[in-house]
Structures
1.
Amino acid sequence: MRKRRFLAASVLLGVALASLTACSTEKTVATKQDTAVETTTARTEESKAKTEAKSGDKKYVVGLAMNTQTNPFFVDVKNGVQKAADELGVELYITDAQDDPTIQMKDVENLITKKPDCIIIDTCDSDAIVSSIEACNEAGIPVLTMDREASGGEVVSHIGYDAVKSGKLAGQYLADTLKGKGNIVEIQGIMGTNVAQNRSKGFNEIISQNPDMKIVACQVADFDRAKGMSVMENILQANDHIDGLYAANDEMLLGALEAVEAAGRLDEITMIGCDAIDDTIKAIKAGKVEATIAEPPYFLGKAIMNAAYDYLEGKPVEKYVILDNELVTADNVDKLVTKE
């Protein structure tokens, strides 16, 4: 009897152990299945993220270190960059150095701390900006420059206009219009920039080829309208006879125009500037200014933003890009397109 009870108990114990073993096995299998599902899900999410990044869905952040936002030319540059950024879904951090190289250095330092995907710089001074670009290089942040070049540092791409060509176009226009004779005034921009240096270089190269053309006054007005007016007032007082004027940008030209008009000498002087900003276009149409050199800033801004985006997308970008510039006079001003 005891033997039968012992056998029965053994059977029940075996059943219980089998049940526990089965339960444990089921839990193990379930745990493995859950882990497999989690791993598969993680891999799927990772793959999805990589696919989105490759397809260009990543939103880039770009720093834009502007040299100034008071000059209409650079306002249009910034607007062009912003337009392209909006079209591409790029977020911009924009700074304004107020034409001060020291402020621009601090601006770039602040942009570096934000860790953008790249930084675009429109330099105040070609030499002073070098240390800032080198700081970007050390931080591993790509740099692109526009309009004014930097004297050093590693730059992915520079986009601008041929400043020497612009100066030559201006010089040739005065030489042709004045038939190779006359007293000429040159108003220069910020001579710490390659743009001012090269516009002057091109202009003087043409004037030197015309022995009967004489530069009677050459002064710096820093690409500024108010300074352009002040400088021209002094030049007018010192020179009774002036035939032609070249201002290295339209802001200085428009300032000089105010001085010329106030002196009642508008009919005496043939004037040409550079940039083709809106106010100069109006002055040409009104017959107050004879010409300018078109270097549309809006399209410069769009071009640099598109180049930065292409670089971040892994596409090839040219190291140096020169955009087209052209002479604008009353003959073709109505056909000129400077914005979208």
2.
Amino acid sequence: MLQNWFILLPEFCLLSFFPIAWLVDIFRREKTAKTFFTLAQAFLLLTIGTTILFYDKSAFPSYWRNTALTTLFKIFVYLLAWAWFYLSSKWFLNKKRASFKFYAACFILLLGFDMLASSASLLALGTAVPLICSGYVCLILRHWDIDKVKKPAAAFAVSALSFCALLWIGISFIRFYAGSFEYEEISRFFAKDPTADALPLAGVLMVISALMFMMAVVPFHTWFISFISTAVLPVCGFITLIPPLIYFCALINLVKGGFEPLGDFIVPVLTIFSLLTLITGALSANHENNLRRLFGFLSLYIQGFTLIGVMDFSRGSMMAAFAYIVISVLSLAGIYTVFLGLKSRGEYLSEQADITGFSEIRPYMSAALLVFMFSLIGLAPTLGFFGNLSIINVLIENEAWGRAAILLPSLLFVAGACLQVVGTFYFKPLSNKFDRVDKAVYICLFINMVFILLALINPAWLLRDAFVILGDVS
């Protein structure tokens, strides 16, 4: 029994942040955004260390199970969160605003993501999703103009409650027929009768739909775009960069662990969601002049592209989708890092009309943005070419010509949206004065660029161990 408590150290590290940071917020007279970043950094590093230490140990394996797969995704997410926390602290320092509630909301989400990634039971899944939804509400409300974010927060809360209810109705249907919440038992039930009664299949559809809502795929994407439009930059970055990898992990666990015998039922459902998301993301990005909304729609496109690649859930498709989503998230992280340098008279800019000619005074940042956008498009020799090619190869091998026929033209629309931003940076006259960029932005851009350039030498180096782990899953 004592061993179980040690195995839960990663979760205890995440939970311990709240009382310690709360006490610091109350009793420390001099506190800045750096104060709470330092605390968040310490607890996140402890979480990473203990997650690696107990990577294959599970305190309650019937509910959530730690494996090499879940550890892989968690470590990626924690490292990405650590980097974004560092950059966000600079934003809060510049704005002279408190950051305790921001980091607290992020830790609520990280705890929910931890549970979601390791879920081995619909009971754990049904607990993690409402926790994540509450974290999203707390995060969007971190705005100095509370009236600006009340409406999107309330709209999301209503939608989240509806989908959480739908999730639990679906879980109840499956539990009633399968006799268990555990993925393994559910898989055995559907393996015996893949053409089960309508109610358990309806339950599966409800559970998948709730997960699609969390992933913000079309037609459930309006809450995400609303968040991107109204939230402060640290919040926009966090909800864009951190969740996709965890949701990808949760989807693999759910389908491979519990719903694998229902492949003929699930693949058409995921096909509809993925194609709608891909097309909407690509087309909508071309009509946006606001950079955050533009890249918000491109992040939807990435979700659709990933779903198209992974929906067969074969060894090759999972590897290809993993490679693509990791590379895309790294590219988006670089783009959001550049956003922190788009500042004039203390205000962070997001309209394209305000950043014309940016390359004239910030050539290094503009060049970095160019590389990241070309990576999103998938142009050679950027790392994004490797990610896109991985999924295209899988579609060709599986003779999924219909999906490929829609996916390839969508790349042209994404290229058009990205080239529109390139034209604003490079080919329009300078129309604004920009503030000095914090050195933290340059440091993070440099690290990201070095990482991408080294990976270009041998792309398999970036993902070799991940391929071994994903191969074991299948």
